[in-house]
Sequence to fold (213 residues):
Amino acid sequence: PVAAVEVAAHRASNTQLLVRVDALLREAGVERGQLACVCVGRGPGSFTGVRIAMATAKGIAQALGVALVGVSSLDAVAWHAWAAGTRGALAVVADAMRKEAYPVRYALDDAGVHRLEADCVVKAQVAVEELAGEGGAAGADGAAAGALSLTGDGLKKYAELFAPAGTLLPEELWAPTGRGLLLALQDAWRTGAADPLDAQRHNPAFLLPVYTR
Fold:
């Protein structure tokens, strides 16, 4: 990353996002015309947050005539944990409201982040039982349940509930970050799932959010 900033905008994200982007470009000495691609977390997550992020990213990419690549917001959290040195079995638990969560399991090794299952939405209590039960925490290397690391913004509400399922990572690793998004994008580029320099393949008009429900 050349420059990054994380802002807890809460209900003001629609008024702060573009302002923060412009300020970050200025601080980094980067002109808008130098941007080759826009990457955005497409969910799952807060419906309003996902819509604001997607709409803003689409507007920027269309105005600049560059590719818009969407990556999983949960994958971005997993890559953020990987960059911080986390290895082994990991579960990202995002808040889905309504006492529900978006739980996804990963295996992290020195080569990167390996997703083990598709997005889903379940009651938080059900997610705990699945992660703590029948092989729920086992990663690609067969890691035991006790070795499971947990992260994601769902822990802000349900830390106590999920604690028996594994070890909670530090709170600064719970949210998606720009670094996590870039690492997820780079991984997609390496595997051929995305080409951030191909604006035709990644036409902003065709990118859809992931709501899961």
